[in-house]
Specification:
Length: about 950
């Protein structure tokens, strides 16, 4: 029988590709778990009083090609002017070998944060490269593996300065008046909640203030002026003031390092090392400090450690997850960093090497010298005499200059009084200098660039004592991969060391490691999205704004809120922004005393850390034996807080993997006492299309676009954490000091760019557009089905710690390993490491309950892959029984010795199990080989070494 045309068009093709199990497999799984229909299964799990009858989003699904064509039409509305605006953002050339083999490679972008170092040695090495670049360019002793952006790095520097300052009674932070305005904006927002006073003035006047705990200086000021701060830093240091300095990688290639100047903390953006502007991000910030302050640093640090056999191995240092351990006492709430972008920047340095970087930096500076000489020779005046790449030019006819720039499709910096700013970059060509000269002078002139080049080389701008004297990047890694063949092989060598979604399921609970479809990823490298400066005129970003507005609308509908703010560039930033909105709302009603935040004991560690950053007092609410919020304890503590109750932070479904039946009652209790409900969006993948936070009764949520809405984790970042809010909170979400838009408020910013990491938003746009409203609901439903399938098949071998009233779980389940450890001595760590031998990344280990494994399969995993994982877990359970029966001794068995590496096969084999059992427990097909044994964590904690592996231990 001939099919009708409507069936041949296949608009749901992507939905079926995104969701792993097909209709027939779903029926098999339903039968296995004792359910008749998927809809009935969901109805039996999700509390009836919060269920929606259908997806709230009426958007139809479409094919990949249709969605790409729609988005291409929108992208075409962006105008690709050349932007010489600067202010921390510049055009770049991304080396094609890095673009294709790193940024566009799922082996790099689908990996998870390297919490399991044995399956992460490749990206750990790449991050160590980034740290080494940071150390050498800043001249500091310890560096992190990236922060979110330059402005938030400045805020972290301010908070760190207060922590380490010996002037504990001091409460003022001094900011030089030529700091980038977006950085100052974020500093003011953060300082307000910390209770710090911000003073903005000429840098040299900092010594006049007596109550300073720290200062923030910018090496090359926002208008381009290059500063010699050595004398000022020496004086302030003598007074006990902590010195933080903003800098920029490309300038530091030529300039004396801030460390040599005496700075205590150095931060900035690595965007110019090959990462496109992308309308504001994502870009990796760098952060470095002195050895004495290393334990106070925010963020992630990669350390050189060793495995249990004494071999060199890399891992993340202790403070990386300290917000989960110390909670409200944490140094920072940072959870997501910018690993993918840090790896790009680090590889940019590997590719170009010290000679190539110096050539690029000198070329940028030389072109700036030539332009400066041209305009001075023709009667215009420069505002500053020392600079690296940025000129501020005084102009009498500013409006006419900007009009000429518009005619030449160029953007100059336009917010300066009677002046324009021009920042040159590595893409600058000779013809650009001619065009810029004509724009500034208002007439065509005949220029001999080579003659000007000869002239300016005789008169250097940067004084000798501000030039870098020592060699940089002498380590072999920066000096041997300069042919594309060698670079390609180096990138592949590192990729092979890691386990990413292109090789196996990553069953991490609370992390939602789902498919990042190629069609979703394609638009991020389109020049229409990649090339825009975040502070270009909004009319040039019409396509971006349309895309952001559409995505915002879809997310508003899917969350049941009234408004959305797209600025927060991580989940933790979203938490912070949402709590700020709550605090501002209370203050607008003259209830600024409301500062108590109730947080369930099961909450993510970032929740209490974010509350502390927002100036709140954290009070923990107990959970009952079933893992639910203890309503009696909640009522008691809400009543005790009374008029000081600000909010509750609750995750739904709970972090314990169940839909709490009393969630609406929780909201009602908090609202009764005048508080607001913050619903953490970490588990939104179990809500989309089924219910909404707004319908449940929450007031604000952040959304992890890098979980639920398919932005890839990138090995530990980027992320996006926009917040949805009810109407009464909408006026209090973050705004921006530079860009005005109907999508922004008048409030202070939390991120450097107005729309956070805007260039990755097309990923979520594509996902929602291709799935459509019903497809999204189906995705959530299958995610729940997959989790219950795993729980059902494993419950005879492992205890499922928490279930709902019907004995079901939500989208993830917690396997309790504690009884096995008590009976046999095998721990959750042993199981996690043994899974590597079976070719899997471990589930989330010991969170939210110590001694457990939390499994989240997502909707994207096929029945075949689910069964492969289940079979591995059942086989491991049988191995545990071998230990229990004494067949294998507790101190020498495949679990405690896991993971096993190739080298062991060559050694004398003395174990009571075979080599085949060790390395091929699941057969030889698609074997993943870890390159190191289990890490020696005690050694790593006691020996913090965070720069490139010594040359003697380095193997190219």
């Amino acid at each position: 029988m001939t099919q009708p045309l409507s069936q041949l068009e296949n608009p749901d093709a992507f939905v079926r590709r995104h969701i792993g199990p097909d209709t027939e497999q779903q029926q098999q799984m339903l039968h296995q778990i004792g359910a008749s229909e998927l809809s009935k299964l969901i109805a039996s799990i999700v509390p009836e009083d919060i269920q929606l009858s259908s997806s709230p989003l009426t958007l139809p699904s479409c094919t990949e090609h249709q969605a790409l064509a729609e988005l291409k039409t929108i992208a075409a509305k962006n105008r690709r002017y050349k932007s010489w605006i600067g202010m921390g953002y510049s055009a770049v050339h991304t080396p094609p070998v890095i673009l294709r083999n790193l940024l566009e490679n799922p082996g790099w972008y689908t990996a998870y944060t390297p919490y399991q170092p044995e399956v992460s040695q490749g990206r750990l090495e790449a991050l160590l490269n980034f740290q080494q670049v940071t150390l050498e360019l800043t001249g500091m002793e310890v560096a992190s593996a990236s922060l979110l952006d330059e402005a938030t790095a400045a805020a972290e520097a301010m908070a760190m300065a207060k922590r380490v300052s010996k002037r504990q009674n001091a409460n003022t932070f001094f900011v030089a008046d030529d700091l980038h305005p977006q950085t100052l904006d974020v500093l003011k927002t953060r300082a307000e909640r910390f209770g710090f006073e911000i003073v903005v003035d000429k840098a040299e006047r900092a010594i006049e203030h007596q109550n300073l705990f720290g200062v923030c200086l910018q090496y090359c000021g926002t208008q381009g002026q290059l500063h010699d701060y050595r004398s000022l830093i020496a004086t302030l240091t003598q007074q006990g003031v902590i010195i933080s300095m903003a800098a920029e990688f490309m300038a530091l290639v030529l300039l004396q390092s801030p460390g040599e100047m005496g700075a205590d903390i150095v931060f900035g953006s690595s965007q110019r090392f090959g990462v496109p502007m992308g309308y504001g991000g994502p870009h990796a910030a760098f952060f470095a400090t002195k050895e004495v302050f290393k334990r106070a640093m925010p963020g992630r640090i990669i350390g050189v450690s060793r495995d249990v056999q004494g071999n060199t191995a890399l891992r993340m240092a202790m403070q990386t997850r300290e917000q989960h351990i110390r909670r409200e006492k944490a140094n920072s709430n940072i959870c997501t960093s910018q690993v993918l972008l840090a790896n790009m920047a680090g590889m940019y340095a590997v590719w170009h090497g010290p000679k190539g970087l110096k050539r690029i930096a000198q070329r940028i500076h030389r072109y700036t010298q030539i332009l400066a000489k041209i305009i001075q020779d023709n009667g215009l005046k420069l505002r500053h005499q020392l600079w690296f790449d940025t000129l501020t030019v005084d102009v009498a006819d500013k409006a006419e200059v900007l009009k000429r720039a518009e005619q030449h499709q160029c953007n100059l910096r336009s917010d300066l009084h009677h002046a324009v700013g021009i920042t040159l970059d590595e893409t600058t060509q000779r013809e650009d200098i001619i065009v810029l000269a004509q724009i500034l002078l208002g007439r065509a002139i005949d220029l001999d660039i080579d003659q000007y080049d000869h002239t300016v080389t005789q008169h250097p701008i940067i004084p000798d004592d501000l030039l870098r004297q020592q060699a940089i990047l002498t380590h072999p890694v920066f000096n041997q991969y300069h042919s594309e063949t060698e670079m390609l092989r180096y990138l592949h060598k590192l990729e092979r060391k890691d386990l990413a979604l292109n090789q196996a399921m990553i069953p991490l609970g609370s992390c939602t490691m789902k498919l990042n479809a190629v069609a979703e990823m394609l638009p991020i490298t389109w020049p229409e999205f990649a090339e825009l400066h975040p502070f270009c005129p909004t009319e040039q970003a019409a396509g971006y704004l349309e895309m952001i507005e559409q995505l915002s609308h879809w997310l508003v509908v899917l969350t049941g809120y009234d408004a959305l703010c797209m600025q927060p560039n991580s989940g933790a930033q979203g938490e912070y922004a949402g709590l700020l909105a709550i605090r501002r709302y209370h203050e607008s009603r003259h209830q600024g005393q409301r500062n108590i935040c109730l947080i369930p004991a099961s909450a993510h560690g970032t929740n209490p850390a974010s509350a502390q950053m927002a100036g709140m007092e954290v009070i923990v609410v107990a959970c009952d034996k079933q893992g639910n919020i203890d309503l009696l304890d909640l009522r008691t503590k809400a009543s005790q807080a009374g008029e000081h109750l600000s909010c509750i932070m609750v995750t739904y479904p709970s972090t314990h993997g169940v839909y709490e039946e009393t969630i609406r009652e929780v909201c009602d209790v908090v609202h009764h006492y005048g508080g607001q409900v913050y619903l953490d969006g970490a588990n939104m993948n179990a809500q989309v299309g089924i219910t909404t936070p707004g319908h449940i009764g929450a007031d604000v949520s952040h959304l992890n676009l890098h979980k639920t809405f398919c932005i890839p984790h990138g090995g530990g970042g980027p992320g996006m954490g926009p917040i949805g809010v009810k109407a009464h909170l909408a006026p209090f979400v973050p705004g921006h000091s530079i860009i005005q838009s109907s999508l922004l408020t008048e409030q202070g910013a939390v991120s450097a760019a107005p729309f956070g990491s805007a260039s990755i938003l097309p990923i979520s746009w594509m996902y929602i557009r291709m799935m459509g409203g019903e497809g999204l609901k189906q995705a959530s439903s299958v995610a729940i089905l997959n989790a219950n399938y795993i729980a059902t098949r494993l419950k005879s071998a492992y205890e499922i710690l928490y279930t709902g009233p019907t004995g079901r779980v939500a989208h993830e389940c917690i396997l309790d390993i504690r009884p096995l450890k008590e009976r046999v001595g095998i721990s959750e760590m042993d199981i996690a490491k043994r899974l590597i031998d079976y070719g899997f990344h471990a589930p989330t280990m010991s969170f939210p309950v110590a001694g457990t494994l939390m499994v989240e399969p997502t909707e994207s995993e096929s029945l075949q892959e689910l069964d492969r994982f289940i079979d591995a877990m059942l086989a491991i359970r049988e191995e545990i029984e071998q230990v229990a029966q004494g067949i294998w001794p507790l101190e020498d068995n495949p679990l405690v010795n896991a993971p096993h590496i190739q080298q062991e096969l060559l050694d004398n084999w003395s174990h009571p199990y075979s080599r085949e059992t060790a390395v091929f427990p699941a057969g030889t097909e698609n074997k993943y080989w870890p390159t190191v044994k289990r890490l020696d964590d005690v050694y790593g904690d006691r020996n913090l070494f965070c720069s490139c592996v010594p040359v003697g231990d380095y193997s190219p």
